[in-house]
Amino acid sequence: MNRSPFALFSSVSYNNQEIHFSGVDLSKAKILLVDDEKKILTLLRAYLEKEDYQIIEALDGNQALEAFRREKPDLVVLDIMLPVVDGLEVCRGIRRTSDIPIIMLTARDEDADKLVGLELGADDYITKPFSPRELVARIRAVLRRAQKAPAEVKGKVVLGELALDEERFEASCHSRRLDLTPAEFRILAALARAPGRVFSRKQLLDRALGESYEGYERTIDSHIKNLRNKLSQAGGGKGCAISTVHGVGYRLEEPESA
């Protein structure tokens, strides 16, 4: 297929896992690019190396997982449609041991693909065709959010059975530790600072991921779904329950004594 590659384009650990990007020079971050089309990898490498990023390439899911374990990148750009092991399985595999930022690539503009990726712990997504410059901008934004997250801590929050330590990026419900992704922790922290207050999806994205985030607002639903499941597994109840205000957004229920 004689197609120009240009036609294709128009984390942190909070649970005793390694934080790869902590203190990293964002202009020299190590990025793992995963796509089964060599032309795409070559083009993206050219753009990213101009920004002084260190680039590692993988053409299939097995190569991606091996490169992740061997190279310990600061961020992964991961295509969903991969041979051998697909991108969603790669994302799941990475999330078993690390919360480094992951940006998913998808050739289809379908909400299902995006939401599944986000449910597995991806931080952002971008749909083909896209501009390499847009990807560079997304990478910068995701790395900035990931690196500055520990500097935005405000102390401890205790709300009924829910407890958050923003300095340590730890959360618990009924004294049971919650294994949260970076985005989930920041969303829960935003809700917990103002219990009972209703936040729109846009407000939660702005507060949890930064005003520069340009993602699809409905992706917040996926993060909320994951949070609800984890809170429920830990016991749920007041202070550990997120309710939906239809047509508006979400709020964290206040404890009975509040």
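The above is record 1. Record 2 follows with the same two-line structure.
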Amino acid sequence: MYKTNEEQEIISIDEFKNDWWEKVEYLLVDIREEEEIASAGGVAGAYNISMYEIPDKIEMAPTWIICLLACQDGSKSEQLVKYMKNNNYNNMFAIQGGVDSLVEAFPELRS
């Protein structure tokens, strides 16, 4: 299992590429609105839930697997990770640079 520091909130694209991609079990969560996904494109294999739905459904958040959150540019996912960690969900991390950086590094994830 990949070791993370509870204080760590962000996973860089290089860290994702070197330490996570096809090596560790995780859940990739796209927190963008449906309209954003429709206009900018989705991420293959990602679970989609709007960041605005999460506070009302926080009890449904998985605790048994590491969740990597991504918005379009990484800014909203970083905020959401702080919120989740403040609510004792220490298995949440943001992808630095969001979906933009992720699909640039891994074009095969664009859907």
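The chain is about 30% helix and 15% strand.
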